[in-house]
Amino acid sequence: MNQLVDSFQRVHTNLRISVTDRCNIRCFYCMPAENVVFMQKSHLLTFEEIERTVRIAVSLGVNKIRLTGGEPLVRQDLHKLIGKLSHIEGIQDLGLTTNGILLAEQARQLHDAGLSRLNISLDALDPKLFREVTRRDGYENVIAGIEAAQQVGFERIKINAVSVRNLTESQIVPFGHFSRESNVEIRFIEFMPLDADNAWEREKVLFAHEIIKTLSEEIMPLIPTDEDSPESPATGFQFADGVGRIGFISSVSQPFCMSCNRFRLTADGKLRNCLFSLEEADIKSLLRGDGTDAEIRQAMLDSIAAKKEGHEINTARFIQPDRPMYSIGG
Fold this sequence. Notes:
By secondary structure, the protein is α/β, with parallel strands linked by helices. It has one domain (14-328): Alpha-Beta Barrel (TIM Barrel). The protein contains ten helices and twelve strands. It has helices at residues 47-59, 78-86, 103-113, 127-134, 139-152, 172-182, 208-218, 284-288, 293-305, 325-328; strands at residues 14-18, 64-68, 93-98, 117-121, 158-163, 185-190, 222-224, 235-239, 245-249, 262-265, 270-272, 281-282. Strands 7-8-9-6-5-4-3-2-1-10-11-12 form a twelve-stranded mixed β-sheet. The model has no long low-confidence stretch (mean pLDDT 91).
């Protein structure tokens, strides 16, 4: 079987698929506050096109799928796509990243359709700061969504919290306690240069080592764990008494490019071999034309083969992609 291997011998088994660029909040690090121009719905891949693409990817060794957006739960009948994908032999892990606003009303359907894991984006445990970050209301909906997901049977729920200097420091300790009290894993993510307003500066990044220091001093020491696979972007810790799991995605301070096994499919059918890639492969034209499975397979192989060594955020060579995060897929 062919594998998706780049020139640095990284084997790619993890495909992240954006199902929409639409979202019901406006986080400053992802989207403009107003006047967002979304893709026409006819430009989005259909569930059948996504299923076909996944089957081809699985034939190349992909075994992990994560659905993203935008906000994936605004895509109508998303549970039907999950049902299709969950029955593809070879997929070992089917996950979803959501902001949780609509989760309470969909959690049961998602679980019953075969969704394996949930990541919920939540940057603040304070309603006022939540609104400052998201520029919308909905904090209570997210908390209700977390509770509903636990009630229907989702295990190892992860909360993704973007860390921004001079903004979210006050949330570090509350998130530590939240992890200990609610049995969810908190993953702090360093602020990355993918904001629609191009306002990212390195000085705004709240680094993982600073958060570890704060949690260790204010609650109790954090101990590294060996639970995450070598390809995982997160470095895992737990509190010294074994209660409460904390993860860190240190994309800026400690890039994990050389162990990266992920690539992305945008909602409009473009294949990206890196979150920060400046090039894309057009899969949709093959899907909607006369493209054969062999041609789509070759497009995937070529895309991965062309992957660069790393994103170069920490060098003068770094160029921020034209697409902001909501358009790429989280």
